[in-house]
Amino acid sequence: MDPSIANFLFRDLHPAVRLGTASDRYAGWLGQIYSRERFGGRISKRFKTVGGQTVTEELLPVESVQEYFQHFSVLELDFTFYSLLLDEHSNPTPTLGVLETYRKHLKASDRIILKVPQTIFARKLWRGGKFAENPVYLNAEVFIRKFYEPVSALMGPMLQGLVFEQEYQAKKERTEPEVFVSALDRFFEQIPRDDRYHVEVRTEALLTNAYFQVLEKHGIGQVLSHWTWLPPLRKQLSKASGRFFNAGKQSVIRLMTPIGMRYEEAYLKAFPFDKMVEGMMSARMPEETAEVMREAIQQGVQANVIINNRAGGNAPLIAQQVAGKFSEVFSGDNVGRG
């Protein structure tokens, strides 16, 4: 194994590649990404219930992001998915406060991908023990005033991308593709044009030609997501005829869960995220990811690869496998170098 990859040093993998993870601060990464000397005695704990089981998560302080960026070149922060940055009275939410803390520890060269709040992009939200229709679904004004403007002002050029994630829709309650595409087109007409937008649609039936035409029209990237109910990455890309639509020549590839495995099962298998779990990771995922990265680079597009612990147990170790396969793919042709 290349010495840099063996030491979890991925920043110089390729000029057109940014490799990173979904969330950070995991105590399970001590000795890999974070130094025990600095953070081993600064672990906080919180309880989380997943699939009816309660686990104790161990987290490092936000300050640890400084060491994170010694290894990776991009970080996806997922906590913005759960709350707007301003409340109904336009006051800062706790989420904005956490993001401000991160900002204090970032260097000018660090890059962040944020998930847009589900309040904006989810058709239904979990409220009162059941899923209910979202009253502000695709509300452009709420997105602009309570997320886009404050996040743009805070993060500036450190903001690498914004991911709009739409939840999986079961067949019996699925939006008609034409209705979905029309609503999406109208929403992106109403918000500021920005080449950092990327959309992750988790329902394969909605990945239609009309959908891709809307992405192309607005210069929005198609997130290629290795996720429970989606087809393999290459099939997702082939549905778009192998094209990358983002106007900023950026692509986002997210390695979330093994195909066919639900969130709860993947989380509990992977926890506490300190090692690979034998037989968990989809066998072809690293190689397929490397192939998609190469295709992006061949088209002059930068590949932003985001890895979740739930994809196999430990994101840094998965990153080693992805980086290793990528190096193999490029060893013969040197595509995009120089």
In a few lines, what is going on in this structure?
The chain is an alpha/beta fold and 338 residues long. It has helices spanning 3-6, 36-39, 65-71, 94-104, 118-121, 140-155, 177-190, 209-218, 233-239, 263-270, 285-298, 315-331, and strands at 17-22, 44-50, 53-59, 74-77, 112-115, 124-127, 130-133, 159-166, 197-201, 221-222, 224-226, 250-255, 302-307.
Any key phrases for this structure?
338 residues; alpha/beta; TIM Barrel; nine-stranded parallel beta sheet; 12 helices; 13 strands; 20% strand
Which secondary structure elements does this structure contain, and how are they paired or packed?
Blueprint: H1 3-6, E1 17-22, H2 36-39, E2 44-50, E3 53-59, H3 65-71, E4 74-77, H4 94-104, E5 112-115, H5 118-121, E6 124-127, E7 130-133, H6 140-155, E8 159-166, H7 177-190, E9 197-201, H8 209-218, E10 221-222, E11 224-226, H9 233-239, E12 250-255, H10 263-270, H11 285-298, E13 302-307, H12 315-331
Parallel strand pairs: 1-4, 1-13, 4-5, 5-8, 8-9, 9-10, 11-12, 12-13
Antiparallel strand pairs: 2-3, 6-7
For the sheet with most strands, the description reads: 9 strands, parallel
- Count of helical regions: 12
Fraction in beta strands: 15-25%
The CATH C-level class name: Alpha Beta
Roughly how many Å apart are the termini? 23 Å
Quaternary organization: single chain
CATH topology (fold) name? TIM Barrel
Name the CATH homologous superfamily: Protein of unknown function UPF0759
Order of helices and strands: HEHEEHEHEHEEHEHEHEEHEHHEH
Number of strands: 13
Helix content: 25-40%
* Rg value: 19 Å
Number of domains: 1
Q: Regions with pLDDT < 50 over 5+ consecutive residues?
A: none
Arithmetic mean pLDDT: 95
Shape: globular
User: Pairing-aware structural class of the strands and helices?
Assistant: alpha/beta
Sheet with the most strands: spatial strand order? 10-9-8-5-4-1-13-12-11
CATH architecture descriptor: Alpha-Beta Barrel
